[in-house]
UniProtKB/TrEMBL annotation:
Residues 139-203 form the Signal transduction histidine kinase subgroup 3 dimerisation and phosphoacceptor domain. GO terms for molecular function: ATP binding; phosphorelay sensor kinase activity; protein dimerization activity. This is histidine kinase. It comes from the Bacteria. The lineage of its organism: Bacteria, Bacillati, Actinomycetota, Actinomycetes, Mycobacteriales. The chain crosses the membrane at residues 21-45, 57-75. Residues 246-329 form the Histidine kinase/HSP90-like ATPase domain. Its EC number is 2.7.13.3. It catalyses: ATP + protein L-histidine = ADP + protein N-phospho-L-histidine. Keywords: ATP-binding, Kinase, Membrane, Nucleotide-binding, Phosphoprotein, Transferase, Transmembrane, Transmembrane helix, Two-component regulatory system. InterPro entries: HATPase_C_sf (IPR036890), HATPase_dom (IPR003594), Sensor_HK_TwoCompSys (IPR050482), Sig_transdc_His_kin_sub3_dim/P (IPR011712). The keyword Transmembrane helix applies. It comes from Mycobacterium celatum. SUPFAM superfamilies: ATPase domain of HSP90 chaperone/DNA topoisomerase II/histidine kinase. GO terms for cellular component: membrane.
Amino acid sequence: MKRQAAVIDAFRQRTRIPAGGLFRWVVLVNGLIFTLGTLVFVVSPATLSAPIKLTEIPVLGVGLAVMLTANALLLRSRLAPLDRLPASMSRVDPPRRSARLHDRGDLHDLIMSFNAMLDRLETERTSASAAALTAQENERQRIARELHDEIGQTLTVALLTLRRTVDGAPPGIRRELEETQETLRASLDEVRRIARQLRPDALEDLGLPSALHAVCNEFAQATGVEVVKHIASQADRLKPDIELVCYRIAQESLTNIARHSGAHKAWLDLHTTSEELTLRIADNGHGGVVSEGAGIRGMRERALLVNATLTITSPSNGGTEVRLVVPLSTGWSK
């Protein structure tokens, strides 16, 4: 963000409007209008007296109004991109793709410089986000392996040892040992669940549809929220980056439903065509204003990596919908 702000400040300080071209245009427009006004006055039957009569003032007023209106309309059409430039600048910071301005005559250099700046910012942001998210996924996998191979194995050995102890324990302490055994078993299940969230084996082994079924079932079991699934099967695997982005966005959306929505029912739809993939997650919660926290910003950054469009709607009358549309011709290689 600091890098983007510095580039924008430098652009504002160094970019100058081509004053010569605009000056010539303003002089040309004003000269043309006044020349036409003079010709109309010369060839028309209207006359002016010295001093001007009261009956001639309306004629002068109408002529002046017509000239000023024509001048304003011509200059307005020419300088319109300048009105859109501040609004476009103000939309650069959020993690969304910024609209480009269209080239208009004498403002060509200014508009092209601004559009080139947006291209550089988005390229740098995409590269930085890709590197950061790649490092994040690698760290997730490392932690998942350690949880499974180290902590998981240690808990398994402890559970087996405790089971043998319970079998030979006197009746007086067997009850307490059995309770400890159940606590240890629950801890082992929780470690395995966290490891699956960090490194979804179903996604790597079976693909996106199976992974989404698994995450929905686990979410429903953990939260009690009913999840209605419409997940289309796929004959071919998608690019790994697209599958990972869709999985993480679905995972984050379900987490937000559990934390913030107060919903008791959710929907997850996945549809693909030859050109695009559409993922939709919705709920029947209380809805309202969606705050752009770290989770949603992370979802937007992930969507940008695969040139996807992410929209989040949450009307005040209830419910929230997250929709991700991914073009299948693009992708990000980790």
